[in-house]
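User: I'll paste a sequence; please echo it back and then give the predicted structure.

Assistant: Echoing your sequence first, then the prediction.
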Amino acid sequence: MALKREDNGTYTIRTQAEAEEAIGLRQELKADIQDAEQDATEISKALLRFLQDSELDELEVPGFRAKIIQRNYPKWNGLKLRRLLKKRFAADEWQGWWRSLTTRIPDQEKINEAVAAGEIEMEDIEAAYEDNPGQPFLEVRKVSD
């Protein structure tokens, strides 16, 4: 008897032959999924390029909306922070500040604590806090009619 999908979507394997068939079917399905995912990725890239080239932020078609999403990822710039600390504090002080505000990179929690405690002014170091734009990506959502 051939491998058969039950009405509830499950499979039951009863024989060695069905198990062998299941392995082959599984591998075919996995390959088809990989191909479909690759096609979907390439189509998304093409849609993103089209929207960017057309200077559109979004495109709505019946039932779906495609929208360009651009996120920023703010973080502290260690080189700028170090330079600003050197500029603000005396030679014997800035290194202590550097060690207290960073590990190998600026430590957000330590900086927040020092500013909250009034030990350092945000105005003295805020130029080192930067927004780093992420790669734009396409979001496609189903919309109700």
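The chain has a mean pLDDT of 91. Strands lie at 58-61, 64-69, 72-76, 129-133, 137-142.
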